[in-house]
Design goal:
This protein is about 30% helix and about 25% strand. The chain contains 4 helices and 7 strands; from the N terminus they run ααβββαββββα.
């Protein structure tokens, strides 16, 4: 018969000795699955995913009922993501979104839709309200800016609205807004 001490005498050391084999097994499995690594100098930047923004926006231009723009951005702007969604309810519609990494390494996102400005802003930004405007060329952009949130700019191009948001600085916003403003809608 083996000796077991009464439960009342168990303490944190017993708990640690019980968890140690479980943690060791988890680390071994994670290592075998190549899902973890160790870098003594801290995290390193991973590989940026390839995303064919021209093909994605061309497809959206053919299938969606509103004009789609593909902005011509300066060297260093890397497209890395895209998606399509739908805003339901009054004033809603389909949304085409693409994302870019700026030369400074910040992420910027551009969403195009035929939804109303209010529906698009609520869909992407939640309950934020406009805080000002920016004039980029002949186009007025409505600015949504709060101290603890990413800024966002929305422009009305008649048949469509474009919303840009992200972690970029003012220069990144003006670059993307200028490229969108200058871009012609893609052919269907």
């Amino acid at each position: 018969m083996s000796y077991q001490k009464p439960r009342i005498l168990n303490d944190y050391r017993d708990l640690l000795w019980s968890l140690f084999p479980l943690v060791l097994i988890a680390v071994v499995f994670a290592g075998l699955a190549s899902q973890c690594s160790f870098a003594a100098k801290g995290p390193t930047q991973g590989q940026v995913p390839h995303f064919d923004v021209a093909a994605a926006l061309s497809s959206d231009a053919r299938t969606l009922t509103f004009p789609i723009k593909n902005p011509s951005l300066p060297a260093g702007w890397t497209p890395n993501s895209g998606s399509r969604d739908t805003i339901t309810g009054t004033g809603g519609g389909p949304v085409s979104t693409v994302g870019f990494l700026t030369p400074q390494g910040t992420y910027m996102r551009m969403s195009q839709s035929n939804a109303t400005e209010e529906s698009l802003s609520r869909f992407v930004l939640g309950s934020r309200y406009a805080s000002g405007t920016e004039q980029i060329g002949d186009q007025k952009w409505i600015v949504y800016s709060e101290p603890t949130e990413e800024s966002a700019w929305i422009a009305d191009f008649g048949q469509s609205r474009v919303l840009i948001t992200g972690a970029g600085n003012r220069s990144a916003f003006t670059t993307l807004a200028g490229a969108v403003t200058a871009a012609e809608p893609l052919k269907r």
